[in-house]
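Look over this record before class:
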Amino acid sequence: MSTTCVLCGTAAKQGACHDHLGFCQSCAMTLPSFEALLESLDSPAALLSRDLVILSENRRLRGITHDGGSTAVGAKIGLALGCVHAARTEECGRTDACAECWLRRSVDLARISGARIPGVPWDLLPHTGPRRPYAISAVKTREAVVVTLRPPAA
């Protein structure tokens, strides 16, 4: 039995994954480099799997999650950010609204095309509090995508 690494896409024997997120041993060794890269960014940022699971995050993203600064690694991005649609179903990416979500579209487009997706306007509609506007940028890295969320320029 084998499983596929969420970062590089290579097959790994069952039980050879780093942890519940599904990194192969080689990618698990590079994870500190990704974490350092994310921390160096001046915006909320996360490394996302193809199904929108947060594989790594920076402290700025933790600062805007609905859990008030707790780590969101292992959670879907919409649920971590408090998206009203994810909160209703407990499943980010599975509602009718998700098909129109620019965060999801940006991640998919970057992953499929390999192109950098710069500054797509997106409004997060959280289940508590006011609508929050962001500009999403996404870039593919191996089989995952790095996403940054910037408040719109004033």
User: Anything to note?
Assistant: The radius of gyration is 15 Å. Helices lie at 25-40, 59-64, 77-81, 84-89, 102-113. DSSP finds five helices and seven strands in the chain.
